[in-house]
Each structure stands twice: as C-alpha cells, then as structure tokens.
Specification:
352 residues; TIM Barrel; two-stranded antiparallel sheet; 17% strand; twelve-stranded mixed sheet; alpha/beta
C-alpha cells in the first residue's frame, strides 16, 4: 500500500527552505512563534474507534519497519530538548498504550532529559494495569480522552463497550500520583446534553475537565462547520447547572480557556480550536509515528526525519531539518476560510 492510499501526504524532498531564518537554535517560525511543546505519536493503532477520529475498521497499518524505534524516538526527543529548546514532551497515538515498549520509551527519555516533563494522551483502556510501571519509568502526567459517562453514548461514540476500563484507568492514574489528571472531551451533538454529568463526575473525582471543539480531522470526512457544537453552546448548557466564572488562560500559549465552577476550586476548560482559534500563540511541533515532522495539525507539509536519521545524519543535520520545518509553519489553519481543505491525515494518524 502506498502512502497516498493510506491517506498520507507526499513528503517534501531535501531540506526545508531556510531563507531569511534568524540565527537561533530554537524552533522559530516566520510569524515570531517559538515551538517548545513536542507531540510524539508512537503508533497509529488504537483500542477504540471514536467516530471523530478513526474509521470503524481502524487506520491502515504502518509497516513495522517504518515505525520509529525506541532508540530513534529517544534520540529525537533528546535532540529536541537539548538543541532546539523543547520544554515539554507528550506521547500520543493512535493509542500509545498499544505499544508494548512504551515503558522503555518513557524510561529512555527520562534518563536522558530528566528535567523535562513527560506526558501522555491516552484513551485510558488498560491504563490501570500499566500506570505504576509508567510512573516508575518517568511519566509525569496523563490526559485521558473521555467524552461521556453515559455507557450507551460511550459505546455509540467509540464503537466499543469499554467505559468501565477508561474510568478505572483514570482512577488508577490519580492513585499513582500522575497529577493533575486531565480529561479531554470532544464536543459532539449526541453527548452535549450529558456534558454537565461529565463535569460533575470530573469534579467529584478530582480531575481537570477540558472540552474540545470538534475539528475536521475525522476519517469519514463528515465534519461540517454548521453541525459542530461550539464553545458558546456548551457554556449555555453548563451554565444551566453550574455557576461559571471566566478566568481566561494562565499561559498565553495554553489552548484552554478556563472557568471556575461554582466559585472553585474546581475548573472547567474549553479548547475552542474552531471558533476562538489560538494559532497566533501556538507553540507545538509534531513528530508522527513514521518519523515525519509536521508544524501544524492542519498542514500536509511533512519532512522525513526518519529517512535522514537512518541515512546516517548527525544531530546537527537533523536539527537543521527540524528548524526548517518549523520556519515554514503557516499562519493558521484557516478553517473558516472559503478554500479550507482538511488535511489528508486524520487525527489518529497525526497524533493528538
């Protein structure tokens, strides 16, 4: 199967354009942003089939020899931290728990850059069985995807009856000291009425809930701007049950706006990627499971760092490719523009 058949963009040949780039080691772009947050996808496989992310049959399998190895991931993470100014690293998928060597990846990165927070975004299925080993390896935090606490809605949305496993994973993460445990919920029309129940559950469990506007990254290409649930709609629904006080963003580059719930201390966040975009403060750089550098979720521009790495490139050459990839980052996703075209890769293939 070719990359095109798998829905993967054609990779740009050679080095990225570095024309006009200032002499700095950091991951700057043409608009003055600096990438300090690295998202590393380590697999395309997932134990769920969320409708806004994956097709029912799952994503096409990436051949094993095309996946980055444990040693390659560790090398690239260390390079990003030591040479490029990355300050936070988050492992994603697919579902990162689908890799049996996840503990090795975490332990290797932690040993090399122990001062850098290592986080993971997971659906929580099976997390309770591995969380203590992951914490011992050096994992600091987890974000767990959970869109509803209604078992029927959960099964419909994920095409799997695994809600109890997810809830057990969240509780196990808290028990293992991976605080704060954040819960990510994608705003969907079928689960909107249950949003207050999800918030109540998170408050009772001591988790930080963040709702995310649905983005046009679904495998079935059914996303439509007119059908999506907006942050404003959600606030109306939550406001009917809770007293919400806006507190904004604690960090200008943080994607979530926060509200105190019933006077605090509990909060709820909303990541309004579509209606209140924050592209002008984005500080992320992305590495796909098959070793492609991406500067943006919505850009099909990719640079093949795996090929360079396996061809014997030294760290300076890899760093140059990475700096160039980010220098060519575009201004924003343009979802509200007439000519917007969703990326060829879906969320599951890019990494959250």
């Amino acid at each position: 199967m070719t990359r095109v058949e798998m829905g993967i963009p054609t990779v740009r040949p050679g080095y990225p354009d570095l024309d006009g780039r200032p002499d700095t080691p950091f991951l700057v772009d043409r608009f003055g942003r600096v990438a300090r947050d690295l998202r590393v996808s380590i697999t395309e496989k997932c134990s769920l089939r969320c409708t806004y992310c994956m097709p029912e049959e799952g994503l096409p399998e990436i051949p094993r020899h095309e996946l980055l190895t444990v040693d390659e991931i560790i090398r690239l993470v260390c390079l990003a931290v030591r040479e490029l100014g990355v300050r936070e690293v988050r492992f994603t998928g697919g579902e990162p728990l689908m890799r049996r060597d996840l503990e090795q990846i975490i332990a290797g990165c932690h040993a090399q850059v122990p001062h850098v927070p290592l986080a993971m975004t997971t659906n929580g299925v099976g997390l309770d069985r591995r969380v203590h080993a992951l914490a011992a390896a050096g994992l600091h935090r987890v974000n767990v995807s959970l869109d509803t606490v209604d078992p029927i809605r959960f099964a419909q949305l994920t095409r799997r009856d695994r809600l109890e496993s997810v809830l057990a994973g969240i509780r196990a993460a808290r028990g293992a000291g991976l605080a704060p445990v954040k819960v990510n919920a994608v705003l969907m029309r079928p689960t909107l009425s249950g949003a207050p129940d999800l918030l109540r559950w998170c408050l009772d469990e001591g988790c930080e809930l963040r709702f995310i506007e649905e983005m046009p990254l679904d495998a079935d290409h059914e996303w439509a701007r007119d059908n999506m649930v907006t942050a404003a709609e959600l606030l109306d629904v939550l406001g009917a049950r809770f007293d919400l006080t806006a507190v904004g963003r604690s960090d200008p580059s943080a994607p979530a706006e926060k509200w105190l719930v019933d006077g605090g201390p509990g909060t709820v966040g909303i990541i309004a990627t579509v209606t209140r975009k924050f592209c002008d403060t984005c500080d992320r750089t992305r590495l796909t499971a098959d070793g492609m550098l991406r500067s943006c979720l919505f850009s099909d521009q990719e640079f093949d760092v795996r090929r360079a790495l396996r061809s014997g490139a030294d760290d300076e050459e890899l760093a140059t490719i990475w700096r160039g990839a980010m220098w060519n980052k575009w201004a924003g996703h343009g979802i509200d523009t007439v000519g917007f075209v969703p990326p060829e890769r879906t969320m599951g293939a890019i990494g959250g």
